[in-house]
Design goal:
single chain; 2-enoyl-CoA Hydratase, Chain A, domain 1; eight-stranded mixed beta sheet; six-stranded parallel beta sheet; globular
Length: 578
């Protein structure tokens, strides 16, 4: 009965989208942008919920053509388009508990600062409260607003690693783990209930760097001494009145009064437009250019085969087959003058990472290939980027983690607790249980797995050294599975320079001696056609899944990587600053 209900819902959804497709298609010839040239406009950027990296394959091509998705790239595009648009008199950012990584906050902060500097136009920001991350963004704006009863919730930065050893013991699940090398501790939480000395060292260094960098940037932008900000952080919560007296915000007003300020800047309430509508109509008003720059968005876990869509709000994955094709297609297209590999990935399959790196080299032989690392580009995420001509990072990007991890869970104890027994008496092949979830590794199997992992590690380090133009012995000491911030990675020569997506685009424009107005930006991998998208999507998008469930879903998707008994380039840390 349930299957019939689901089938009916799916059919109705398909019919609904088909109807909208046909009716909209009939209107396309007479479509005119609603925003008229000459209007005095203010673009309102409502930041609410999660802002992921763009995943072009996640949306049908038809939808993306007529409605830009709410993602991080749309935020960046807003400032790029508005910078040279004479109609735009300013931008208003309104925060409502956005979920965005600290490296992305840095990139957006830099984008706001450049917009103000290059255009001379104001950027205002309003929020009921500010955290340390959103205060960093606010510090780049001309005026910072907050309600009189608002507050700054800035207790500082901390890490809270979760350990599952007790859970594993209760469930009867045992693990065999092989890692290269001592800092590759991604599976430690399953077999330990405390931080290893190496993990403690890494977490401490990361928190110290993030803390110092954030404080320095906010203090410099607001023109206050760092000691004042440190004192505020040690107080935990600061009232709006105290924040204004200390110079952290500019005005204490309620939302209705802020709307009047927006209208004053725009001239009229009707001249305030949302950022998604604005960039959609901007793109539709520009004819395609002959020359193009391809941006290949690589977000999620890396695995062999085709990429998987990001159901339930999770990031899409990076399939080696999908991304090899995307890189080859972009490389073989004579209209594309350069490629940007935009990486937001903690890694995954070692084999898939190596296949994608080979495709990067293929593309690099034909045209410039630039890497733009965002929140995380570590382990396999670093591997697929390291062969690029140049690598851009934010100071707080998490990268490095040059190492290899192998994990094999044995569920025999869990099966026994559930009254389940497997008969494993019939087999051929001495090591037929190597990929079984029922047996542990034998000492002999452990040793040859260790040799196998060591070979992969040496290959990783060797290729990283080759790509970064270093000797093996020079690079290996900074490998060993350790993660670094972007700032540290520049010091050790793992990446090249600070900058975001727009800096990577400018790098290609400079190499090819061409103006930004003379090129179009095209996205890869290509999105699916409407019906292919609908059939693959089913009804998952109509479900309202709470955030904790999303996090569990993402963790479960990463757990799938261990099921094939494959060596992994997987980063051991994932830091979120709130």
């Amino acid at each position: 009965m349930k299957k019939w209900i689901l089938a009916i819902i799916l059919i109705l959804l398909i019919l609904f989208f088909l109807f909208n497709f046909l009716t909209l298609k009939s209107r396309i010839p007479t479509f005119k942008p609603k925003i008229k040239l000459g209007h005095k406009l203010v673009v309102r950027v409502d930041m609410e919920g999660r802002f992921e990296e763009r995943s072009p394959g996640k949306y049908p091509r038809f939808f993306v053509r007529f409605r830009k998705p709410k993602d991080f790239e749309s935020l960046l595009e807003t400032f790029e388009y508005a910078k040279n648009d004479e109609r735009i008199k300013g931008i208003s950012i309104v925060l409502n508990s956005p979920i965005i990584g600290i490296a992305k906050v840095e990139e957006l902060t830099d984008r706001v600062e450049r917009f103000r500097e290059e255009s001379g136009k104001p950027v205002y920001i309003y929020s009921d409260y500010y955290t340390l991350g959103t205060l960093l963004l606010a510090s780049s704006c001309e005026r910072v607003f907050i309600p009189p009863t608002g507050e700054l919730i800035i207790p500082g930065i901390r890490v809270e690693p979760i350990f599952f050893k007790g859970t594993m013991d209760k469930l009867g699940i045992q693990w065999d783990i092989v890692k290269m090398k001592e800092y590759k501790n991604g599976l430690d939480p399953f077999v330990s209930d405390t931080l290893s000395p190496e993990s403690r060292e890494v977490y401490t260094a990361l928190v110290d760097t993030l803390y110092r960098q954030t404080i320095r940037e906010i203090a410099e932008a607001r023109g206050i001494d760092t000691s004042i900000l440190i004192s505020c952080i040690d107080s935990g919560i600061i009232t709006a009145k105290d924040a204004k007296n200390l110079g952290l915000v500019d005005s204490l007003i309620y939302p209705i009064d802020y709307e009047e300020i927006e209208q004053e800047l725009a001239g009229d309430e009707e001249n305030i437009t949302g950022f998604l509508k604005y960039i959609t109509e901007r793109e539709m008003s520009f004819p395609p250019r002959e020359k193009k720059i391809a941006v290949i968005y690589a977000s999620g876990s890396i695995h062999t085969g085709e990429s998987k869509p990001g159901y339930f709000g999770a990031s899409a994955s990076i399939g080696s087959k999908t991304y090899t094709k995307a890189l080859k297609d972009a490389a073989d297209d004579d209209d594309i003058i350069g490629i940007i590999l935009r990486v937001d990935s903690g890694g995954g399959s070692a084999l898939a990472s190596d296949i994608i790196r080979d495709a990067v080299q293929y593309a690099k032989d034909k045209k410039p290939v630039i890497a733009s690392m965002t929140s995380v580009a570590a382990s396999g995420g670093y591997y697929i980027a390291m062969a690029c001509d140049s690598i851009f990072v934010e100071p707080m990007t998490i990268t490095g983690s040059i190492g290899v991890l192998y994990g094999k869970p044995s569920l025999k104890g869990l099966y026994e607790k559930l009254g389940i027994r497997k008969d494993i008496s019939i087999y051929r092949g001495k090591h037929s249980g190597l990929t079984s979830d029922y047996e542990r590794l034998t000492p002999e199997e452990y040793e040859f797995i260790k040799r196998y992992i060591e070979d992969i590690y040496n290959d990783f380090v060797g290729k990283a050294a080759e790509d970064r133009k270093k000797g093996f012995d020079e690079l290996e000491p900074v490998a060993r599975g350790r993660v670094y911030t972007g700032k540290e990675a520049i010091t050790f020569g793992l990446v090249d320079r600070f900058g975001g997506l727009n800096d990577a685009i400018d790098c290609i424009l400079k190499k090819e001696n061409i103006s930004r107005k003379d090129v179009s930006i095209v996205e890869y991998p290509r999105g699916k056609e409407l019906f292919e998208f609908m059939l693959e999507l089913g009804i998952s998008k109509v479900l309202d899944i709470p955030t904790p469930a999303l996090e569990l879903y993402r963790a479960a998707k990463e757990y799938e990587l261990f099921q094939d008994g494959e060596a992994l380039f997987l980063t051991p840390v994932n830091i979120s600053v709130k």
